Amino acid sequence: LEQRETRQEVSLLYSRARIRFPLKKKSCEKKGRIRAFLKMSRKRTNDRRVETLDGHRGFCRYVGPVCGQTGTWVGIEWDDSNRGKHDGKHDGKRYFECKRKGKEAETKRASFVRAQKVAPGTDFVSAAKEKYEFESQDAQLEKRLVFGGKAKKTDENEEEDVTIELKTKLSLQKKLNELERILLPNARLERVTGRAARTEDDEGEEARPSSSSSSLNEEEGEEVLAKTFNANATHVDVSGNLMTSFVELGKIGKYFRNLEILDASDAYYDEDVGDIESGDASALAKEVALAASQFRNLKTLALNKTRTSWAKALLIIDQMPNLEELRLDRNELQNIAAVDERASRKYFPKVKVLSLDGNTCIKWDDLWALRFLPSLETLYASDCSVEHIAYQDDDENNNNNTNTNDDDKRFFRNLRGLFLGYNRVRSWQSVDVIDHFPRLECVRLSHNPFCENDSASRHEIVARAGKLLSLNASEITERERRESEIRYLRNVVAEVSSSSSIRLEDKELDAKMGSDEVLAKHPRAKALKEMHGESALAGVQTTKTTQSQQQLESRESGNGTSTNGGGASSSISLALTLTREGKGSKDRTFPKNVTVARVKTTCEKLFGMKLGTSTLAIRDRDEDETEKYTELEPDEDTLAYLGVESGAEIFVL
C-alpha cells in the first residue's frame, strides 16, 4: 500500500510538471499561414513550387481572388495531373496558363485551393534547426521522470526518499556544428539560407521558420552556415525539396567542401527555364555548370525524379571528377547519346554505379551507348523498355591487338552487375549473351516475358549463363549450378534425340549436339555434355519409335489390356531402401510417370516417419568403381525423366 501511494504521488507530480512545462504550440496557425503566404507572394513571382497540407505538390501560377468566391485563392498546376479540374480558366475567365510541355500538357491539370491550405516553405538552416535543435527553453525540456538519488539510511526504520528531476533534451542530442550527416527529406526547402539566424542574445524573439523572410546575400548566407553547421559534414539529404533552381542547390556545396553524398531527388530544377539540351553555352548552362563545380569532392549524387535530361546530367557530372555513383531514376530519359572512349574518360572517369531505373523509354541501344565507361561496375535499368540483350565485340579493335582475349580492350570491361528486372526481354538468346561480358557475374532478370515463371526458369538461366554467381538477388551455389546444368542438358538431349527414329550412338549424339542448328539454340549444350559425362544422361533419349510405343501402351491401358512379353511395361519396379534406424528395404511398384514427391510420400507411409528435408538418391559407381549417390531433384520431376530404370534401388538420405 505504501508503494502504491508513492506511485500515486509521483504520478501527480508528473502531471503537475506537464502543466508547468506545456508543449510548444504549433507555429503555423490558419491566419498565420495566409499572412505568410500573401507576404511571400508579393515579394516573389509565381511559378514557384508549393506543397499543400495534404502533401500534394505543384507550381503556383496565381495568387488572388476568384470571381464568385470569398477569400484568397492559389492557382496550382499539379504534378499529378489527375488532381486537375481545369487549365487555368474558370467560369469563362482566364486566370493563368499551364506551362507544362510534351506529353504531360494535358488540358486539365490545374485547380484552385484556399491560401490557408498551402503549407509554408522554409530554408535549409531553419529546417535543420527545427529538426535537430529546440530553440525555446520550453521545448528543450523533456518531460521524463528519473528515479534515483536515494538517501542513505541512518536508521533501519527510516524510509527511502524518491527524487524527481527533469532532464533537458539538449543534453541528449548533438549540436548542429557536430553533425556529419544532415538529413532533411521532404522538409519543404525553398532555398538554402533565409533571414539571419537569431543569436543567443535575442531571447525576446521566438525564432520560427518563415517563408516571408528575404534571402540573404552570399556573404551573409555563408556566415550563417558557418555559425550553424559543421563544415566537414559528408552527407546531406534534401530530397523532396521545393527549390526551382540547381543554382540554389549549389550553395550547399559551396559551404560543405568535403561533402561526399548528396541526395537531391524528387524536385523540379529549372522546370520553367529555357531548354538546356540545345548544346549552346547559354546563360543557364553556365550557371548550372558553375553550381555543379561546387561539389568537386562529391562521390554519390542522386537526382531521381527531377526531370534531369541526359544533356544536363553530363553538364553536371563534368564538374564532379570524383563522382563514383550516379542515380537518375524516373527522369523520362530517352535517346541516350553514345559516349565514346574520349567522352567516357571526361564525364565518367570514376563512376562505378549508374542507376537508370524507371526510365520507361530506355532500350538496349541506349544502354549499349555506355559500353566505353571505364570504371562502370553496376548498371541498374529495371522497369524500362529493354526487349533484348546483345553483345558485339569490336572486331576492328581486336584485329589491331595481338591478344584478343584481353578483357581491358572489350566493352563493359568492368561490369559485374546488370539489373534488368521488369523489362520486355522475350528470347532466351539474351541469356546466352551474358557469358560474352568479360566480368559479369550478378544479374537480375525477373519479371520478363521470356521467363513467365521465375522460379521454374531459374535453373535454365543458371545453366545457360555459366559465369553467374548471383541471380535475382540470390546466390548460386555449386550444387544448384550442377543440378541446373544436368537438368537443362537432359532436356536438350531429349529434344535432339526425339527427332530420330532409332537410339543415337554416342558419336552420333555428339555430332548432333555440335551442329550449327543446336549450337545456335543451345550454345553451352556440347560443353555441358563433355563436362558432366554420360552418367548424367542415363535413360534420357526418347526416339520416335519409343514415343509410338508409349502412345500404343497408353491406348491399350485405356482399353483395359496390357502388353506382355515383347511389349514394354507401363510400370517400373523400384526397391526403396531407408538408410537409417535399421528400417531395411521394401519393394514397391510404381507407374512410369510417378514423381519424386509421390515416392517420398510412399516412403513416409511405409516406414512410419516424417522425412522432412531428406532427399531421395540412387547409387551408382564411377569409372574407378567408387560408389556415389546421385540425388533425385526436383520433387516435381518424374523418375523416368531423371533416368531411373526398373529394378533400381532408391535410398532415402
Would you write up a description of this structure?
It is elongated and about 90 Å long. The chain is built from 19 helices and 27 strands. The protein has 653 residues and is α/β, with parallel strands linked by helices.
Q: Which helices and strands occur, and which strands form pairs?
A:
Elements: H1 2-20, H2 30-43, E1 49-52, E2 57-64, E3 73-78, E4 89-90, E5 93-94, E6 110-114, E7 118-119, E8 122-123, H3 124-132, H4 137-140, E9 141-142, E10 167-168, E11 181-183, E12 189-191, H5 218-228, E13 235-237, H6 246-255, E14 261-263, H7 283-292, E15 300-302, H8 310-317, E16 325-327, H9 341-347, E17 353-355, H10 364-368, E18 378-380, H11 395-399, E19 417-419, H12 429-432, E20 442-444, H13 454-464, E21 470-471, E22 474-475, H14 478-497, H15 506-513, H16 516-521, H17 525-532, H18 544-558, E23 571-578, E24 585-591, H19 596-607, E25 616-621, E26 627-631, E27 649-652
Parallel strand pairs: 8-12, 11-13, 13-14, 14-15, 15-16, 16-17, 17-18, 18-19, 19-20, 20-21, 23-27
Antiparallel strand pairs: 1-2, 1-7, 2-3, 3-6, 4-5, 9-10, 21-22, 23-24, 25-26, 25-27
Helix pairs in contact: 6-7, 7-8, 13-14, 14-17
Low-confidence stretches: 13-28, 135-154, 158-173, 195-214, 396-404, 542-557, 560-568
Walk across the major sheet and give the strand order.
11-13-14-15-16-17-18-19-20-21-22
The averaged pLDDT comes out at 76
User: What is the count of helical runs?
Assistant: 19
Total strands: the figure is 27
Which class best fits the helix and strand makeup? alpha/beta
What helical percentage do the residues reach?
25-40%
Main beta-sheet annotation? 11 strands, mixed
Shape: elongated
Proportion of strand residues: 15-25%
Determine the N-to-C terminus distance.
65 Å
- What is the rounded Rg? 36 Å
